[in-house]
């Protein structure tokens, strides 16, 4: 501002000198010229002061008027999602027959963890309610999470099926559960504390003899704690192979021992007669008694 003011004053001095040349009276002319030169000198002084002030004014002002501290905004950490959930399988909605009137609902359509599976929980870590899972992709080989062939329909015979997904904001040690259903019946499950990272790729798998993969609609439900996260469906078509018969040894009854009749001892002789003493007959006096030895 001082430089602008100095330029304006300098212009006024120039105009004063120009107007003095047009005056005819000598005294008035000299006064006008003197005023013009004073104006020019004041303009030069003000211009010099403005230039000096622009370089040295701020340090001098801070010496007498120290600046008050200003609040510095501390940058906060912003969670940048690194996993883009890109669904690749669109589930075809199925028509569910809803009864017109129901007295007491016996079941709910929201997936839940059965009490028998809940009783197997081991983890004491509180799960993160913000944990996120991508839609499930099913494959017969999940050895490579980046390059695999996903499908929604499989043909028998099948020995192994894997459901691949991406996840984020998981807490290691929290309980997670995968339930495998076939036409509404539970056929396989796994429930363990989470042993992976907080984000990345994950999978749940089922390996069984081919005769257990019966044709039907299969559904896989993923839970973190008791909170449902994602569900996926696939079909298995074709008859499952018949299990080979297993030879089971049969127990043949051993022949019963026939008892040989024991020898019959001959009957023992039993004496049935006893000597009966004869009644004593009085002998006449003087008769001698003779006996047979």
Secondary structure category: alpha+beta
CATH-scheme architecture of the domain at 115-237: Sandwich
Strand content: 15-25%
SS summary, helix count: 3
Strand order of the largest sheet: 3-9-8-5-6
Rg estimate, integer Å:
59 Å
**Head-to-tail CA distance between termini:** 187 Å
Mean pLDDT: 77
The residue fraction in helices comes out at: 10-25%
**What is the CATH C level class of the domain at 115-237, in words?**
Mainly Beta
CATH superfamily of the domain at 115-237: Macroglobulin (MG2) domain
**What is the CATH third-level topology name of the domain at 115-237?**
Immunoglobulin-like
Low-confidence stretches: 101-107, 269-276, 283-293
Secondary structure: number of strands: 9
Summarize the biggest pleated sheet: 5 strands, mixed
Shape: rod-shaped
Encode the helix/strand succession as letters.
HHHEEEEEEEEE
Short description:
It contains 3 helices and 9 strands; from the N terminus they run H-H-H-E-E-E-E-E-E-E-E-E. It is an alpha+beta fold and 293 residues long. Strand 8 (216-224) and strand 9 (227-237) form a beta hairpin.
Description:
With 293 residues, this protein is an alpha+beta fold. Among the domains are: 2-64; 115-237, Immunoglobulin-like (Sandwich), CATH 2.60.40. It has three helices and nine strands. It has a five-stranded mixed sheet, with no helix packed on it. Strand 8 and strand 9 (227-237) form a beta hairpin. The longest helix has 39 residues, at 26-64. It starts with a helix and ends in a 56-residue tail after the last strand.
